[in-house]
From TrEMBL:
Ranges where the record places region Disordered: 47-90, 179-209
Name under which the protein is recorded: Transcription factor GTE10
Organism: Sesamum angustifolium
Superkingdom, taxonomy of origin: Eukaryota
Composition bias type Basic and acidic residues, residue spans: 49-90
Amino acid sequence: MCSIVSPSCCNILGESAPPERQVSPEKQYRAALLRSRFADIIIKAQENTLEKGGKPDPEKLKLEKEELERRRREEKARLQAEAKAAEEARKKAEVEAAAEARRKRELEREAARQALQQMEKTVDINENSQFMEDLEMFRSAPDEHLHSFIEEASPENSLNGLGSFKFRANSNPLEQLGLYMKNDEEEEEEVEPQSILDTSNDPEEGEID
């Protein structure tokens, strides 16, 4: 059959085409559309070649035309299926790319959120550490140094008596300032109901003031 038609036509129709290289779904889709568009032209050219081949046997010419028509239908169906598969592969690749981009954005947001939380924790820890260091400095500093420090930091409070305050060694600076950790068990102290009051001063029943 291919002896009547040029080898290039057979290659275009996919009969003896070399194996396809790995290409993107977009290129596969475009190639399938091109092959489908030119398939009818190639088949008609093959029919014209048969008709111009001198005076062949009418019966043989009929059989060859039927064979060409059958091939045309098969090739058209194959190209349509190929184009559909290429289109589905292209859409699938787009969906996967969008999902991957969305996953990367979510990972970046989560990393930024964790970094922000870590920064906030670090700031809190540093502030608490600095506060305790300041208290320790007040506890260990001599009275004259403490007094001069208060005057430099807040001159209006230099005469409020804080300069004479001295922290005791080996004690909690917070407790010396009157700050204590509250125990949860102390919150559950029993409170005498208001209804149970001393009724000794209430007028007795039936007594007239």
